[in-house]
Amino acid sequence: MRTAFIVVLVATAATTAAAQTGVDARMQAWSKALGVECAHCHVEDQWTDTSKPTFEFAQRMNRMVDALNAGPLKDIGIISCWTCHRGRSIPARVPRATWEKIRDDHQAELANRPTHAVYPASLGVDCSHCHEPDRALNTKAPKTMVAKMMPIFEEIPKHFDKARRAPVTQCFMCHQGRTRPERTP
User: Fold this and answer.
1) How far apart are the C-alpha atoms of 104 and 125, rounded to whole Å?
2) Residue 43 forms beta bridges with which residues?
3) Residue 17 in domain
4) Which residue, of 47, 49, 143, 175, is most buried by count of CB atoms within 10 Å of its CB?
5) CB contact at 8 A, 80 and 87
6) Which domain holds residue 129?
């Protein structure tokens, strides 16, 4: 009986230590991804205190990443906080001058779709990356990928309080001028 108690005690301690190690690793990854210290979300020396608004916001953002990975990105590849934040507390936005130059250089092509200039600016490509010379054709894989990615723009707002802060999501937030997002540091 005493041996069984000791085995249960050791197993419980090992499980608790492993769980804490997992939490510590997750917190370190979040700190690195957002470029912040633990006290950004936590009350110093009261790590379970949930009173800071950033604590609740981080929890929502974690649920958002989980939902994106389980939903729209399930067959594409997982993301992490790093994918969009890359060491910044607020994800980068496509520089206005970048997409405006593309829009201005392609006024005739973009006459009915001026916001399409954001796509090449976000991915660091030109229009031929997705489009055939005959724009009616849809044979290029990157154009097909755009359709797969569109549900992301429906999922992300579900995790924000629209009365306080509604996101304006852009491809650039994850891609940051690259055709493939950086998934980990």
Assistant:
1) 16
2) 46
3) no
4) 175
5) no
6) 82-175
